[in-house]
Amino acid sequence: MKCRVCREPAVIDIRRHNANFCVEHFLRLCRDQTAKAIEEFSMLSPGDKVLVAVSGGKDSLALWDLLVELGYEAHGLYIGLGIGGYSDRSGAMVRDFAQARGLELTQIDLRADYDTDVPTAAKATRRVPCSACGLSKRHLFDRAALDGGYDAVATGHNLDDEAAVLFGNTLRWQTEYLARQMPVLEARAGFPRKVKPLVRLGEREMAAYCVLRGIDYIVEECPMAVGNKHLGYKEALNEIEARSPGSKHDFYFGYLARASHRFADAAPGVSSGTPGDTDSASVGRCERCGSPSTSNTCAFCRLIEASAGAQPVTITEKGRLK
What we know:
Layout: E1 12-14, E2 19-21, H1 23-40, E3 49-54, H2 58-69, E4 73-80, H3 84-101, E5 105-109, H4 110-114, H5 118-125, H6 129-147, E6 152-154, H7 159-171, H8 175-180, E7 184-185, E8 194-195, H9 203-213, H10 229-243, H11 247-258, E9 284-285, E10 292-293, H12 299-307
Parallel strand pairs: 3-4, 3-6, 4-5, 6-8
Antiparallel strand pairs: 1-2, 7-8, 9-10
């Protein structure tokens, strides 16, 4: 197996490209594909200050590394979610990564800073754990980006992630979500710009990138994601991809090119052609934190109010609350 570029021994094959790559040219491919996504969707401009949402997994750490390689001022933000040993290990991975490279990292801990955590909040509010987790992360990343004067929040959503989410949203024709499933969500009142620079790279490529760059990351899935439909959609698409390489890419980028504009007005309160651009007149401010909210108290503050001070909840090895 030889590298398509230099004909030296290859270390990875990428079937959707019908090509093999050596270490040097595979790493270059990852940088080029990230830069291409940034340029293609006008995600960032030279000199932008970027806040990277890091979790300790391969995608977010690889993204942080790639943005630094591409010359962006990229700082990390890690949120300790209090999900048992999983959170302990993921936090350690992020801190080690930042320290080894001299990168700026901000840390927020739900238990220390808000007197709660995801398992406790999920039980107290009767939310699905992934819902409590997503709500907390979105709110805290938004606030940190705005308070820190960042030009954008970058997340490590890769091609596999986006194709799986699109698959699930299409199965149920969830038009409000389809309207927002774009590589870029523009900034609007109270919300920072959000970008996904890894949409041209798959999960396997990101794992290989980390191995070849010497990036240690947490391999295990979050124990609270057991049974998550998103993982099932990924498995289904993996089977299709194995039979027809390139299917994920064609599905996702075909949607962006040929269908995404059809859903641009589907999000509640949309007032322009920009997906996710809601009518600011219909959104007020949370009385507690000042974040945009359709009620007097935003969903995050209600979550904290309902769970702060509650008896901490632990989770079983299978991710169940107890």
